């Protein structure tokens, strides 16, 4: 395993562990998701450059577009929950209540 491969795998796993263990606020969960998507984007971009795959070069941009859509949807949910519940703590959000 190369050091570059190890650093991107460890960045993804750290984001996943942060999402799993530190789910107190919605904003911290969204930041962990963004870190995971950023590590996937950089790894996918370096993979296409390393193997010189010109047909696969649009995949990192597609992943970046999906990541931007995910970030905007997450921020919209953050604003909506902060307005309705007064906080972004995930423990106060009950999905069974309307």
TrEMBL record:
TM region positions: 26-49, 61-80
Pfam families given in the database record: Oxidored_q2
Membrane topology according to the record: Multi-pass membrane protein
Keyword annotations of the record: Electron transport, Membrane, Mitochondrion, Mitochondrion inner membrane, NAD, Respiratory chain, Translocase, Transmembrane, Transmembrane helix, Transport, Ubiquinone
Subcellular location as annotated: Mitochondrion inner membrane; Mitochondrion membrane
GO CC annotations, alphabetized: mitochondrial inner membrane; NADH dehydrogenase complex; respiratory chain complex; transmembrane transporter complex
GO biological process: ATP synthesis coupled electron transport
InterPro entries tied to this protein: NADH_UbQ_OxRdtase_chain4L/K, NUOK/Mnh_C1-like
Reaction(s) catalysed (UniProt annotation): a ubiquinone + NADH + 5 H(+)(in) = a ubiquinol + NAD(+) + 4 H(+)(out)
Main subcellular location: mitochondrion
Class of this enzyme: translocase
Gene Ontology molecular function terms on file: NADH dehydrogenase (ubiquinone) activity; oxidoreductase activity, acting on NAD(P)H
Family statement drawn from the similarity comment of this UniProt entry: Belongs to the complex I subunit 4L family.
Function field: Core subunit of the mitochondrial membrane respiratory chain NADH dehydrogenase (Complex I) which catalyzes electron transfer from NADH through the respiratory chain, using ubiquinone as an electron acceptor. Part of the enzyme membrane arm which is embedded in the lipid bilayer and involved in proton translocation.
PANTHER family cross-referenced by the UniProt entry: NADH-UBIQUINONE OXIDOREDUCTASE CHAIN 4L, NADH-UBIQUINONE OXIDOREDUCTASE SUBUNIT ND4L
Name recorded for this polypeptide: NADH-ubiquinone oxidoreductase chain 4L
Phylogenetic classification of the source organism: Eukaryota, Metazoa, Chordata, Craniata, Vertebrata
Gene responsible for this protein: ND4L
């Amino acid at each position: 395993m190369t050091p570059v491969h190890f650093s991107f795998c460890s960045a993804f796993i750290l984001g996943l562990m942060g999402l799993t263990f530190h789910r107190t606020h919605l904003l911290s969960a969204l930041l962990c998701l963004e870190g995971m998507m950023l590590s996937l984007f950089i790894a996918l971009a370096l993979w296409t450059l390393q193997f010189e795959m010109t047909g696969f070069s649009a995949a990192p941009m597609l992943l970046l577009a999906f990541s931007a859509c995910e970030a905007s949807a997450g921020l919209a949910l953050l604003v909506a929950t902060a307005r309705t519940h007064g906080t972004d703590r995930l423990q106060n959000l009950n999905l069974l209540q309307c």
